[in-house]
Amino acid sequence: MTAPATQSHKPAKSDPRPAAQSGTFVIGGDLSVNRLGFGTMRLTGKGVWGPPADHAEAIAVLRRAVELGINLIDTADSYGPDVAERLIAEALHPYAPGLVIATKAGFQRPGPNKWVEDGRPEHLRSACEGSLKRLKLDRIDLFQLHRIDPKVPLEDQIGALVELQRTGKIRHIGLSEVNVKQIDAVRRLATVVSVQNRYNLADRGSEAVLDYCTRENLGFIPWFPLATGDLAEGDGPLAQTATRLHAAPSQLALAWLLRKSPVMLPIPGTSTVAHLEENTDAALVKLDDATMRELDQHAGK
């Protein structure tokens, strides 16, 4: 399903809150967000480990994101670990009305660039408690299982999330890096409102999951949304179209995602205010049917 557009263009004038031009989506029936959000993984140190190289810039990025109309911020206890969540609270607490902070649990971090699945119920409960404290929240709006741990029975992992939901510590449950069969299995145990899978112009391996989410009206949060492969190089199709629209290739990549499905919630991340502003202006790029067909022909190749 592709949202309608009449003519590809990028407005000459900048909007002070461009994220508000990305359209809205209601997560779980009660959390209305602007569809272009922000992901916090890149606010941490090298290897998604330790504090940012420039702490002041990281704080400025988060505050500027809200000024630009972003009201969906995605994070995880494993980013740092703990670093990204602490930065969010430092920069934005007390939170503006309507700001949705989505976090994730399900990994242990033994070191830089090292990720170990841990879906034990005791770990998920402990991770949730830690996130609540670091984010200074009484309840997490969207709590996502970072990965399904094959070493732990699915019923135990999802049961822990359902219990956290029942006790009021989380509002909604989301999944990450799952296939359609896994989503169906989890939905027999709990209500799922979102799926976060890798998806971008150059990697459409989760196309079936996106189609499923579009049909079922589940939020689809594509991580690594700016990957474009060779499409943005030289005289590649993305570079050519970006030049014609007077836009950056990264903006075109995000505009393509936003147009691809009404449930798409891209969360491009960055560690600089300048790059954040460029990314957010992608919401002002409107793609027509012909441009979408052109990009679809080359995407994922």
Q: Would you give an account of this structure?
A:
With 301 residues, the chain is α/β, with parallel strands linked by helices. It has a domain at 24-229: Alpha-Beta Barrel (TIM Barrel), CATH 3.20.20.100. The protein is built from 10 helices and 11 strands. The chain has a 7-stranded parallel β-sheet with strand order 3-4-5-8-9-10-11, with helices on one face. α6 (207-216) links the parallel β10 (192-198) and β11. The chain is globular, with a radius of gyration of 18 Å. The two termini are 21 Å apart. The relative contact order is 0.17.
How does the overall form come out from the CA principal axes?
Answer: globular
Low-confidence stretches: none
Whole-angstrom Rg: 18 Å
* Helix-residue proportion: 25-40%
Topology order in helix (H) and strand (E) letters: EEEHEHEEEHEHEHEHEHHHH
Mean pLDDT: 93
